[in-house]
């Protein structure tokens, strides 16, 4: 997705979006990624409970 980011941002801006909103989407994606990385249990820990 890092390779697609600049192209996707260009499409967003040409479609009428603002740079601030594009930045906000990026911040939200980063926050979601951090939450997912730190708070979702590892598969091996989850499956060992069965």
At a glance:
72% of the residues lie in helices and 0% in strands. It has 50 residues and is mainly α.
Describe this structure in words.
With 50 residues, the chain is mostly helical. The protein has a domain at 17-50. Helices cover 72% and strands 0% of the residues. The protein has helices spanning 5-14, 19-39, 43-47. The chain is elongated and about 50 Å long.
pLDDT average, as an integer?
A: 88
Rg, Å, rounded: 16 Å
Shape: elongated
Strands, count: 0
Quaternary arrangement of the chains shown? single chain
Number of helices, counting only DSSP H or I runs of 4 residues or more: 3
Q: Helix proportion of residues, in percent?
A: over 70%
SSE arrangement, N to C: HHH
Strand composition percent: under 5%
Class by SSE composition = mainly alpha
Specify the biggest β-sheet: none
Low-confidence stretches: none
C-alpha termini separation: 34 Å
Identify the notable features of this structure and list them briefly.
50 residues; mainly alpha; 0% strand
Q: Which helices and strands occur, and which strands form pairs?
A:
Blueprint: H1 5-14, H2 19-39, H3 43-47
